[in-house]
């Protein structure tokens, strides 16, 4: 009970993480941060999303769509998923095949006390002894190099010049997964501490940007109206019930609307079992309630990110949907484009309700304060 009360009082949805915030977090923490501390429920953790243990709108394919069409930064996730599968396939090789691709050890870390001339001779000797062309998955590694690591590649990873040089040197020598050890920590840190929190923050919203703007401005206007009514009615010969009830009523919905807009959760839509659609969303993206109850995870995540099968396909249908979505005006965003909450991950729905209840509680607190002030204050009897 105390845990639920504590969550109700102090829960905050994940904050927007930018590049500078990520750098400061990376310097403060050596490993992946705790999900609970960042406002991400354990059931929506990075590991569960990657392992396809979540439902819409927090599936692995939703994560990919978010990075592709919102952040425009999907290369880290694409590389991370490829590397996970590459490790599995490489481990399945026989010992003889594995011996053709030795574990990579950076010569600068192997022995820092050796002169540079000795290191150069050692590297040259190693290059003669091993024939890279005969190593397992050489063509696949070369293709991934051209896709993610080479300068101006289609999905170029954001690497420093030193890290890029090191990984390219390693891959020219061996195809062992250890050759990527200078790249993987950066990719995983970016996904865990930036992309995933931003994705969960986005997935928890039920309102699009047009509705969010309308809620904020509408709530702000209602708050001003409530203040004006409180002052105006207090100066006149108005019954106390009207003098207290009307301003507090307007203030309650004004504060609630502002808070809902600030946290992108619409009370009206949630009460009606509706939500605004994502820009990239297709009709087939959301499952029915029975599939969520049965936790049919195979159907929950159907997009394949198998880079071994060839180049990454381009989803022309989603591109057309996004272009049409971006051309809509504010009125269209407000009146059209929502869909039912059927198929929503139960944890997402629970957090959305929690956020709405928090907003109602805060609005009620402001309303009670204003009501007490108006009740105690005497009538002006000026008109």
UniProtKB/TrEMBL annotation:
Transmembrane segments: 217-236, 359-377
InterPro entries documented for this protein: RGS (IPR016137), RGS_sf (IPR036305), RGS_subdomain_2 (IPR044926)
Keywords of the record: Membrane, Transmembrane, Transmembrane helix
Domain RGS: 65-201
Protein name (record): RGS domain-containing protein
Organism encoding this protein: Orbilia oligospora
Organism placement in taxonomy: Eukaryota, Fungi, Dikarya, Ascomycota, Pezizomycotina
């Amino acid at each position: 009970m105390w845990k639920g009360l504590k969550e109700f009082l102090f829960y905050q949805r994940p904050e927007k993480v930018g590049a500078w915030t990520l750098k400061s977090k990376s310097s403060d923490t050596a490993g992946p941060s705790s999900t609970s501390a960042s406002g991400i429920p354990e059931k929506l953790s990075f590991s569960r999303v990657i392992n396809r243990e979540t439902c819409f709108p927090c599936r692995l394919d939703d994560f990919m769509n978010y990075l592709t069409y919102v952040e425009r930064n999907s290369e880290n996730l694409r590389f991370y998923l490829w590397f996970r599968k590459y490790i599995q396939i490489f481990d399945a090789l026989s010992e003889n095949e594995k011996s053709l691709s030795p574990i990579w050890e950076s010569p600068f870390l192997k022995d820092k006390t050796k002169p540079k001339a000795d290191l150069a001779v050692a590297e040259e000797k190693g290059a003669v002894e091993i024939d890279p062309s005969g190593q397992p998955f050489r063509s696949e590694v070369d293709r991934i190099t051209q896709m993610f690591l080479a300068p101006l590649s289609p999905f170029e990873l954001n690497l420093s010049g030193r890290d890029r040089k090191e990984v390219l040197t390693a891959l020219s020598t061996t195809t062992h997964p250890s050759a990527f050890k200078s790249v993987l920590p950066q990719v995983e840190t970016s996904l865990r501490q930036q992309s995933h929190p931003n994705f969960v923050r986005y997935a928890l919203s039920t309102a699009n940007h047009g509705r969010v703007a309308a809620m904020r401005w509408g709530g702000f206007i209602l708050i001003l109206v409530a203040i004006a009514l409180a002052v105006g009615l207090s100066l006149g010969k108005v019954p106390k019930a009207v003098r207290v009830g009307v301003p507090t009523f307007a203030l309650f919905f004004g504060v609630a609307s502002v808070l809902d807009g600030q946290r992108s959760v619409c009370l009206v839509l949630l009460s009606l079992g509706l939500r605004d659609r994502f820009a990239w969303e297709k009709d087939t993206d959301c499952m029915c309630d029975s599939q969520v109850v049965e936790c049919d995870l195979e159907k929950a995540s159907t997009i394949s990110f198998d880079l071994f099968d060839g180049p990454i396909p381009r989803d022309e249908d989603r591109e057309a949907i996004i272009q049409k979505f971006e051309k809509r005006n504010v009125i269209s965003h407000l009146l059209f484009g929502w869909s039912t909450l059927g198929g929503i991950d139960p944890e997402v729905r629970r957090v959305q309700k929690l956020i709405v209840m928090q907003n109602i509680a805060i609005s009620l607190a402001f309303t009670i304060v204003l009501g007490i002030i108006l009740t105690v204050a005497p009538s002006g009897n000026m008109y």
